[in-house]
Structure formats: structure tokens, C-alpha cells
Amino acid sequence: MLSRRLFTAAGATLFAAPRLAFAQTAAPSGPHVLPPLPYAAEANEPHIDAMTMQLHHDRHHGAAVANLNAALKDHAQLAALSADALLMRIADVPDTIRTAVRNNGGAHVNHAMFWQIMGGKGGTPTGALAAAIDRDLGGFDTFKTTFNRTGAGLFGSGWVFITVTKEGKLAMVPRPNQDSPLMDGARVLMGNDVWEHAYYLKYQNRRPDYLAAWWNVLDWSKIAARYDQAMAGTLTI
Length: 237
Ligand code: MN3
Known about the structure:
It is a single chain. The chain is mainly alpha-helical. Helix 3 packs antiparallel against helix 6. Strand 1 and strand 2 (170-176) form a beta hairpin. The chain has 11 helices and 3 strands, in the order ααααααααβββααα. The chain has one domain: minor pseudopilin epsh fold (3-Layer(bab) Sandwich), CATH 3.55.40. Manganese (III) ion binds next to helix 3. The site of manganese (III) ion (MN3) has 7 residues, from helix 3.
């Protein structure tokens, strides 16, 4: 149980406390698994605090994986699909579990992507990705400004994504809730989570400040690798 003190004095308390044992409840143990954070929870400090990273990964993403597995429990054929294949076939998922798969499967792939592209030092993209941003998104500065404005203007909870379309173009795609562009047949290059749980401990209601700070933790080498995989048809989530 989290104490109120952890929320009200996150900075001082977190580093003194042992790692909290989240996501230890019994749940169907597959087929989907929570991928570990690819870096320490502190890696994105000071822009994204470690407490937020830990809660966001262990509890929010962990719950989505558990709920997705629970929804698929009696659906062996669907349970055999990869997460991206499952979302790309959302129309074939039975009514009884479609909303659960859309929400929790979407949350799973969205967060798995999100952890991958952070843990870096920011900066700017280079090479083929930079050229694609120039071609399709008006150049890096315009892309960044438009992306942040889109995130700030997204009502309620959701994500702003950059997708790679079937035609190989980049597109900026805001989505509500945990909806994934995979459901529309696009591949997801990158995206930012604008749910309050992504920023509220550090930024409270100041979503634009979070959006601005997020660029400082991006790992453009990871995003460039995702771009190459998307163009080669090998990118999954
Ligand atoms: Mn989230």
C-alpha cells in the first residue's frame, strides 16, 4: 500500500525507500508479459521523476498486461496472436472482450513502445529519419511545436503518436484513451502519453511543461532503429 507520504514528498522519500514490490498480485501468467524497463527508473530524471516511471511501468502497464491476459483467458486462438497482430485484427475480436482488448492491449503496446524510446539525452534525429521528418512533418522544429500543441490540446486522456503509414509516410496522430494506431493498420514510430498518470506527480496540471520536458529524454538512436524497422516491415510494437 502506498502511503500518502510517497505522493506528497516523492523526491525525498523515494530514494530512501527500497524498490516497492508492485505488480506482485496473482494474475493469469501469460501469454503477454510486462517488459522490464530498459533502464533504471531514475534514468529520465529530472525531466520525468523516478516515482512516476516506477508507478507508470509497474502498476499502470502491469495492470494492462494482467487485464489483457484475463480477457484472453478463454480465447486460445486470440491468445496465440502477438499483441500487434491482435490489435490489427480488433474487428475480429468477439464483442464480449473487444473493449477489454482494445483498452488493455492498446495500453500494453503503447507503453512498451514508450519505454523503448526514452532513456536518452534528447537532441535531434539524423539521417533517413530526419529527412522523413523534413518531408512529412515540416522539419524538426515545426514537428516538435505541432506535437506539443496537439498533446496540450488533447482533451482528457490519450496519446500523440507519429505513425508510419502503409505508404511509408510519417503522420501525426492523436488518439483518445489507449487506442493504438495499429488498429488502423499503421505502425507506431513514437508517441507521448498525456494521461495524467504520466506527469501529475511532478507537473500536476502543467501538461505543457511535461510535453516540453519529454524531448530531453528521447533516445533518437532507438527511434531511428524503429523507423528503419517500420520501413523494412519488421516493426512490431
Ligand atoms: Mn500511461
